[in-house]
């Protein structure tokens, strides 16, 4: 069998594998976007601290460590039930993308889209005191 036939077969196999991996990654991205859109809330946070942390993708397994962008902020949560209103202030650590991380500064208030512990988008900020 000539070398060019082997090369074509290998390229076709690699192309098919890449196509299926790409579709799987695209499906995961779409699933995450649907979940984020269903659970996002716009909240006002006060940024206490921000840091870049290197951590494994899956804890407990030997994966290479990747940079995660974390923001520690104070959030006021409120709930109304049967005419009674309850509110509390809690400190949370949120993860975000590099682009949004660079927009955030310490000791400022921001309106952000939050889903769970993930900041999706920073809507605006103002300096406090």
Question: Can you walk through the features of this model?
Answer:
The protein has 129 residues and is of the alpha+beta class. 33% of the residues lie in helices and 50% in strands. It is built from 2 helices and 5 strands, in the order αβββαββ. The protein has helices at 3-39, 98-103; strands at 41-56, 65-81, 84-96, 108-115, 118-127. A 5-stranded antiparallel β-sheet has the order 3-2-1-4-5. A hairpin with a 2-residue loop joins strand 2 and strand 3 (84-96). The radius of gyration is 22 Å and the shape is elongated. The mean pLDDT is 86.
Summarize the SSE layout with pairings:
Layout: H1 3-39, E1 41-56, E2 65-81, E3 84-96, H2 98-103, E4 108-115, E5 118-127
Antiparallel strand pairs: 1-2, 1-4, 2-3, 4-5
Q: What strand line-up does the widest sheet have? A: 3-2-1-4-5
Mean pLDDT: 86
Would you tell me the structural class of the helices and strands? alpha+beta
Number of strands: 5
Number of helices: 2
The coarse silhouette is elongated
* Residues in helix, %: 25-40%
Largest sheet: 5 strands, antiparallel
